[in-house]
Specification:
The structure is a single chain. By secondary structure, the protein is α+β, with helices and mostly antiparallel strands. Helix content is 57%, strand content 17%. It is built from 11 helices and 10 strands. Strands 1, 2, 3, 4, 5, 6, 7, 8, 9 and 10 form a 10-stranded mixed beta sheet that branches. A hairpin with a 2-residue loop joins strand 2 and strand 3. Helix 9 packs antiparallel against helix 10. The protein is elongated and about 105 Å long. The chain starts with a helix and ends with a helix.
């Protein structure tokens, strides 16, 4: 069945389609207004989604981590072995990684670099190796930041020296995005920092941000009593929640600004439909005189407005999709992320908003045309 045959079954729809074609310039301008409105709404929404997604990616690897350091009321200058053992016994559902840190300058034939030295055992809990390995238990050898290795011309198996001891490079670690670590860092076994009595910090890796928040509460109850702080316990989970809340508010503000464009476009449609019904007053009077009911006139005018909304909404959504592809490619490096529901919902919302706004804009012209008395309409 051809589309034309389908339209003949609905006379009011067929007449609405033909009426739009009678003044193509006016119809095109009204549709262009809808396109601009949809692009404004959808593009601003997608922009907010891209920013939020990138912020989540930057914090994602840290949101499930809890950092424990010596508290302001502690009698030691670090986290003791006994405190680490208590944390380990308390948290059986998370990985507990005590760390000792220092700084040094490592040298090679191609130069020297200032690095942070970290002594720990469970390297695989905190680092991903871009080359080589990050072992579960680091008891020999070392991990080095990939950027530092490139700067010094070092490769896997090459030795690096710290405090008179040589460590063979077992893995190269990439710096994480955002607030992550891994930049200019040398990771060695804890024995390399044995002269430091206490741990500088303890990193606890939980299953997710919610579990990290629960761990913070448990550690606070175990080690701190009121104003007395034995251990300082911090987590990025709450920071991520605050950032998400701020970005959601920003999204609503951007959508509000974009909606103004669509409201202006709706007023333009109202004007176009009103002018169209005034110009066709005599024609509508003839239709009413030959027996066409008010409901048919009402449906015809509303269908004209709906056609403008559907066409403008579809074109606007396609243009916004193109904008989203470019935006996600620039911000996240993967243009196809725009197809995820967090972003794609703004395309659907923009299209739906365009159709609803167009139909609402056609209500008054349709009512005015349908309630006009045939005799008065024929008199002009």
């Amino acid at each position: 069945m051809r589309p034309g045959d389908l339209l003949t079954r609905f006379p009011s729809v067929l007449m609405a389609w033909r009426n739009l074609g009678r003044n193509r310039v006016r119809t095109a301008l009204a549709t262009l207004g809808i396109v601009i409105g949809v692009v404004a709404i959808a593009s601003l929404g997608i922009t907010g989604a891209a920013i939020q997604q990138q912020a989540t990616a930057d914090l994602g690897s840290l949101a499930n981590e809890v950092t424990v350091t010596s508290g302001q009321d502690s009698s030691t200058d670090g986290v003791t072995d006994d405190q680490v053992a208590r944390i380990d016994r308390l948290l059986t559902d998370a990985r507990v990684v005590p760390r000792k840190t220092n700084t040094t300058t490592i040298e090679s034939r191609e130069g020297e670099a200032f690095v942070t030295v970290t002594g720990l055992t469970e390297a695989s809990a905190l680092y991903d190796a871009a080359a080589g390995e990050a072992p579960d238990r680091l008891q020999s050898g070392a991990l080095l930041s990939a950027d530092t290795a490139r700067e010094l011309g070092l490769e896997l198996g090459d030795p690096v020296e710290y405090e008179g001891r040589l460590y063979r490079i077992r893995g190269l670690i990439e710096a994480e995005g955002g607030f992550g670590g891994g930049g200019n860092e040398l990771v060695i076994p804890p024995s390399g920092l044995a002269d430091q009595q206490h741990y500088d910090s303890v990193t606890i890796v939980a299953a997710d941000g919610e579990a990290a928040t629960a761990i913070v509460d448990r550690l606070e109850a175990e080690f701190n009593d009121g104003d007395e702080e034995e251990l300082s316990v911090t987590s990025f989970a709450s920071a991520q929640e605050n950032i998400d809340s701020f970005l959601n508010t920003l999204n609503l503000a951007l959508l509000g600004i974009g909606s103004i464009s669509l409201v202006v476009a709706s007023v333009a449609i109202l004007n176009v439909m009103l002018m169209s019904t005034i110009e066709r007053r005599g024609e509508i009077g003839v239709l009413r005189a030959v027996g066409i009911r008010r409901g048919e006139i009402l449906r015809m005018i509303l269908t004209e407005a709906a056609f403008i909304g559907v066409i403008g909404g579809a074109v606007g959504a396609l243009v916004s999709l193109g904008v989203g592809l470019v935006l996600f490619d620039a911000v996240a490096g993967d243009p196809l992320l725009v197809l995820r529901w967090d972003s794609a919902r703004y395309l659907v919302s923009g299209f739906a908003f365009a159709v609803v706004a167009s139909v609402l804009s056609g209500l008054y012209p349709a009512w005015k045309a349908a309630t006009d008395r045939p005799v008065e309409a024929l008199r002009g």
